[in-house]
């Protein structure tokens, strides 16, 4: 049976929620509800007048919804955060937490195609009510588009070779399952050299990012957060790979995803945030040992000026 505990073990729980500097009567947003670990910790620190809005676009996360008058679940992509806050009549928020990417539940679900550990349909949609699947992308994108995805989102050096192998495979047969993708890429899952696992993890990550438009959603959400946070409000974000981390770092330093520093007439740098931690926070040794998924996590915290 899936419980909130087996669904996902929250990463950097104390550090990320401490970073919000919770005001008991404040309004907070957790844009990545998942198993609800971070949301429950935020609720435990809120007083009776505080409120938490938590987003998740995955229907499975709804099984973890908590019964609390101070809690509202928003079944949506977090890129629409400004529209939703307007809908709920919220002009400003005191803090926003994001724990990006997919949950352990996604990797452990044998049916959704997020992991090469199981033979499953190539879906990879977090919101499986809409949008293109990984199979659609693998079968319909041009070889060049596939190479770009593997290079940009998987940081795979031999992206062109991988795209060529997929293009060759699909001349004879559509790619429908994770096993088809492994076959197309000539992966022997019995190979003793562990490099294939690292490369497949990167290829799967690249496809997942494209399927879910993760980079666009992140940029739009951070832009919305910048507009919604009140002065002194906190932004606490956990990332799991360098592409996400770069965008978060740029927004916190410069106020935009590109990291372009804007200056006023007198040459003073204009930025909406002050960094709370200059150095990224990473899980301690104990957390990295007990929860291997936490090993790639990086936490950044900023305060709205
Ligand atoms: C790393 S998990 C969060 C785990 C959570 N902090 C916990 O303690 O259980 C990320 C969650 O965010 C959701 N998610 C990712 N991107 C999203 C988006 N653009 N909009 C809404 N939900 C998203 C995923 O479906 C997943 O459940």
Describe this structure in words.
The structure is a single chain. The chain is α/β, with parallel strands linked by helices. Helices cover 39% and strands 15% of the residues. The chain contains 13 helices and nine strands. Strands 3-2-1-4-5-9-8 form a seven-stranded mixed beta sheet, with helices on both faces. The chain has a two-stranded antiparallel ribbon with strand order 6-7. Strand 1, helix 3 (37-45) and strand 2 form a beta-alpha-beta unit. The protein binds S-adenosylmethionine. S-adenosylmethionine is lined by residues 8, 10, 32, 34-38, 55-58, 61, 77-79, 99, 101-103, 126, 217. S-adenosylmethionine (SAM) is lined by residues 8, 10, 32, 34-38, 55-58, 61, 77-79, 99, 101-103, 126, 217.
Features:
305 residues; alpha/beta; two-stranded antiparallel sheet; 9 strands; binds S-adenosylmethionine
Layout: helices, strands, pairs:
Layout: H1 4-7, H2 13-18, E1 27-30, H3 37-45, E2 51-55, E3 71-74, H4 81-87, E4 93-99, H5 104-108, H6 134-140, H7 143-154, H8 159-169, H9 178-184, H10 195-211, H11 214-228, E5 229-239, H12 242-254, E6 262-263, E7 269-270, E8 273-275, H13 285-290, E9 298-304
Residues 8, 10, 32, 34-38, 55-58, 61, 77-79, 99, 101-103, 126, 217 line the site of S-adenosylmethionine (SAM).
Q: Could you write a compact summary of the structure shown?
A:
Helices cover 39% and strands 15% of the residues. It is built from 13 helices and nine strands.
Helix-strand topology string: HHEHEEHEHHHHHHHEHEEEHE
Please summarize the sheet with the most strands. Answer: 7 strands, mixed
Give the low-pLDDT segments. none
- Could you tell me the mean pLDDT? 94
Alpha-carbon distance between the two ends: 45 Å
Instruction: Order the strands across the largest sheet as they lie in space.
Output: 3-2-1-4-5-9-8
């Amino acid at each position: 049976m899936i419980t909130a505990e087996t669904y996902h073990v929250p990463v950097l729980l104390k550090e990320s929620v401490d970073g919000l500097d919770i005001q008991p009567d404040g309004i907070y947003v957790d844009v990545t509800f998942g198993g609800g670990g971070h949301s429950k910790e935020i609720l435990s620190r809120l007083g009776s007048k505080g409120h938490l809005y938590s987003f998740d676009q995955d229907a499975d996360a709804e099984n973890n919804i908590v019964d609390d008058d101070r809690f509202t679940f928003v079944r949506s992509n977090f890129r629409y955060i400004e529209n939703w806050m307007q809908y709920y009549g919220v002009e400003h928020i005191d803090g926003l937490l994001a724990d990006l990417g997919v949950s352990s539940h996604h990797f452990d679900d044998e049916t959704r195609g997020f992991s090469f550990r199981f033979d499953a349909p190539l879906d990879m949609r977090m919101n499986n009510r809409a949008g293109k699947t990984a199979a659609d992308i693998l079968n319909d994108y041009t070889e060049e588009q596939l190479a770009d995805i593997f290079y940009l989102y998987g940081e795979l050096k031999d992206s062109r070779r991988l795209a060529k192998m997929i293009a060759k495979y699909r001349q004879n047969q559509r790619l429908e399952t994770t096993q088809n993708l492994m076959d197309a890429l000539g992966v022997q899952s019995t190979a003793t050299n562990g490099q294939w696992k690292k490369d497949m993890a990167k290829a799967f990550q690249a496809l997942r990012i494209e399927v879910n438009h993760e980079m666009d959603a992140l940029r739009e959400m951070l832009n919305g957060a910048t507009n919604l946070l009140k002065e002194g409000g906190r932004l606490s974000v956990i990332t799991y790979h360098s592409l996400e981390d770069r965008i978060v770092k740029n927004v916190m330093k410069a106020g935009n995803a590109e990291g372009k520093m804007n200056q006023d007439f007198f040459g003073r740098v204009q930025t909406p945030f002050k960094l709370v931690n200059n150095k990224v926070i990473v899980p301690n040794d104990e957390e990295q040992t007990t929860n291997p998924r936490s090993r790639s996590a990086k936490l950044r915290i900023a305060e709205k000026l």
